[in-house]
Amino acid sequence: MPITRRTLLAATSLGALAAGGFTLTAKAAATFYAKIVQEPGDYEARFPDILKLNDGRLMAVWHRATSHAGSIGTIQLSFGSTDGRTWSTPTPALANPDTMSGIDTRDPKIGKMNDGSVVMTFFTPAGKVYQSAWKPGWTRFTDPVEVVTSGITVKYSHGSPLALAASGTRTNEVLVPFYTTGTSGGAWFVRTRWDAPTNKLITIESPHQIIQNNNPVGRAYQEPSFVQFGNTIVCGVRAEQDGGGSPVIIAWWDAYVATPTYRYQSFTGVLANSHHLLKTSDGRVLFTYGDKAQARRPTVGMMINNPTQNWVKGTVVPIYDSGADDQANPSSVELSAGTYLTLGYNAKAKGTTDTASTSPSGGTLRVLRTTSADYA
Fold first, then answer.
1. Contacts with 88 (C-beta within 8 Å, 6 or more apart), sequence order
2. What is the tens place of the pLDDT at every residue in 118-130?
3. Mean pLDDT, range 337-357, rounded to an integer
4. Phi, psi of 44 (to 5 degrees)
5. Domain map of the chain by residue range?
6. CA distance linking residue 282 with residue 279, whole number of Å
7. How far, in Å, CA of 12 to CA of 258, rounded?
């Protein structure tokens, strides 16, 4: 499974220490905006996701555990105010956490359905991807059920489920991204339909492989993540060559055809890991990712001005660097036109001073703010 990590940068004088123990650097454009939680004791917050609800509030979920892997993590949930400044006391995301007792529930991702409901997906180390639902007025998510992918029993997930726009009689369709390992594995999606009465995604097609591993030899394709523009799906796929960094793959296809024809681009010079695509109100994509070309894989972002065509590298904005190797799984939301909030976590152990391995703000999940002007 790919390593997921995160970082923190903000604009101030070089070497100054931010509140909570983060080192701020002059080259960063992001500013500290809010704190969602500092997990207690040895617990840490990782792999967060965020979206805006129909009532204007924000929803965030994340993985709470004592280590990156090898421990039993649970999914936490918090609701943010419409301005993103204040957040509710975190609770277990599942209404009945015992349904996943003793199982590490990893990399939660949330997607808003066209009726305002939210579907959360996550995976387990055994290679199962689950779905769970929330509806307006509720406080927790439903008991998880496995996402059905005919012929594929072992799979992992990273990107959020994407509710497609209605097209004629095609309504409530949702694409769920996932990936598999081995030379015949790669990046995939399965087409489902949101069934509001049962609060479930119902699989309606066999899985579609976007791109296959081992092409070229030694290449692995993971963590597909989607947005939709008109009839076009725009997808980012993490690429690894023999375990090392490789340029992220951008793929496009028609959202509604039964047998997609894919177009690809190797985004030269962009070694993006654990990325996130946010469709902005002005028709662009805010692309945030862990930059494997840099030490510690800090979180950076760039604006893609014409996302349905070959991507052109824009201004790369440093967003977040905790100073730890374990970082960079960004997720972003547009708070208002041209103002963006990105989540980042500090997975260092708690300590009285900020060092390479400890921090007074270890275990903290924070919100950072950028604007369109930062990406110009």
1. 78, 79, 80
2. 999 999 999 999 9
3. 96
4. -135, 155
5. 31-375
6. 8
7. 51
Q: Which residues face 86 on adjacent strands?
A: none
Mean of the pLDDT values across residues 314-340? 95
Question: Which of 46, 21, 22, 24 is CA-nearest to residue 36?
Answer: 46
Residue type, 363: G
Three-state SS letters, 301-357: EEEECCCCCCCCCCCCEEEECCCCCCCCCCCEEEEECCEEEEEEEECCEECCCCCCC
Length of the chain as a residue count: 376
Indicate yes or no: pTM above 0.85. yes
Q: What is the sign of the dihedral through the CA atoms of 32, 335, 340 and 225?
A: positive
Taking residue 133's Cβ as centre, other Cβ atoms within 10 Å add up to 22
User: Tokens 């960004």 — which residue?
Assistant: 330
Q: What's the maximum distance between 2 C-alpha atoms anywhere in the chain? A: 60
**DSSP assignment, residue 171?**
-
CATH topology of domain 31-375: Neuraminidase (2.120.10)
